[in-house]
Design brief:
With about 120 residues, the chain is an alpha+beta fold. The chain contains three helices and six strands. The strands form two sheets. A three-stranded mixed beta sheet has the order 2-1-6, covered by helices on one side. Strands 4-3-5 form a three-stranded antiparallel beta sheet, with no helix packed on it.
């Protein structure tokens, strides 16, 4: 299950950035393309396992699913595929392998815990 090694890499990178900035991470935001080769549910499960006994324990992995978008040379437009079984423009049917989106596996944001807000909420 390569999702576990991916999850461990995500956790390592997030921990490194959190330590560098001196913050606590509450969520990691990830873009996941339909052609990335990663099973979302397996990655979510693996993320929880990889976070155990780390400063990220209890944090969330928030996944943004990205569809496959190809460029159609006939329409001269980017078009979302309706199925990954057929790489053809859904409008005109022209075959294309010019993938513009859908291969991503990218951490694009970390949510951090605002300790000042939490401290003021505790005092109330």
């Amino acid at each position: 299950m390569h999702e576990l090694s991916i999850a461990m890499s995500i956790v390592d990178a997030a921990l490194e950035e959190a330590q560098r900035r001196g913050v606590q991470v509450s969520a990691v935001h990830l873009r996941l393309g339909a052609l990335s080769g990663v099973v979302k549910d397996a990655l979510l499960f693996s993320y929880e396992m990889a976070c155990q006994d780390t400063a990220l324990a209890g944090s969330q992995l928030v996944v943004e699913d990205l569809p496959v978008i190809v460029y159609c040379p006939q329409c001269q437009k980017e078009q979302p595929l309706t199925t990954v079984q057929l790489f053809a423009c859904p409008v005109c049917g022209t075959a294309t392998m010019d993938v513009r989106q859908g291969k991503e596996l990218e951490v694009f944001a970390l949510e951090i815990v605002d300790e000042e807000v939490e401290a003021s909420e505790v005092r109330k």
